[in-house]
Amino acid sequence: MKKVSVLIVEDEPLYADQIEMLLDRLGYVLFGVLDESTDVLARLEVSIPDLILMDVHIKGAYDGIELTEKIHERFALPVIFITSLKDDMTFNRASRTDAVNFIVKPFDELQLQRAIELALKKNILSQNNNEMSSQTPESHFFVRQNQSLERVDIQDVIFIKADVNYCVIYLEDKKYVLKVSLTELSKRLPSNQFLLTHRSYLVNQKKITSVNLKEGTVLVGGRSIPLSRRNKAMVLQALNYFKE
Length: 244
Description:
The longest helix has 21 residues, at 109-129. The chain is an alpha/beta fold. The chain contains seven helices and 16 strands. A five-stranded parallel β-sheet has the order 3-2-4-5-6, with helices on both faces. A five-stranded antiparallel β-sheet has the order 11-10-9-13-12. Strands 1-8-7 form a three-stranded antiparallel β-sheet, covered by helices on one side.
């Protein structure tokens, strides 16, 4: 489980410091602070954050809007524009990019929190809409914990249990309770990795250590999960089971 990492692209040091303090209070991880477009592109070649807060006016060959266009030519990164300008020309230029939000300085902690949450949700929806055409499956999703969003790596999920209108996501050392149906949640997970062993259980097949055919259970993460007769053949086939 990882917290959301945020890159600040801002050429006013004092304002960059203020944003950094807001991010820290909201529980996000600072990926870095940069003020020049070339430096941003060079940094993204090495590693990428979960989200970028992009000032419109920055140093370098590109302003923030042009830089966002360059970034989106290569990376599917959610970008929130931040600016002190309120003119229509700036907004219209920004709206032609794939940025997910636009907030005007000065903004407070609540405004920043809502902008980030909306940006991440929009990005998740976009990933889901493009899932069929994407060659690379998504590796993570975000869940809300108190006043921040936490990143959960899909490979760390052991199993998911449905409980009426809620789902409980189990990791090795933590669990999350989400108000979402198992059907809806399964749409956000790679279908070739998670198996429906029972109408109430979705299991990460990479975490399965054994299957008890007599009792109708699978052992995953040290826990025994029910395996229904209806789903038994499908699960065994997915596990590359060979009959003797």
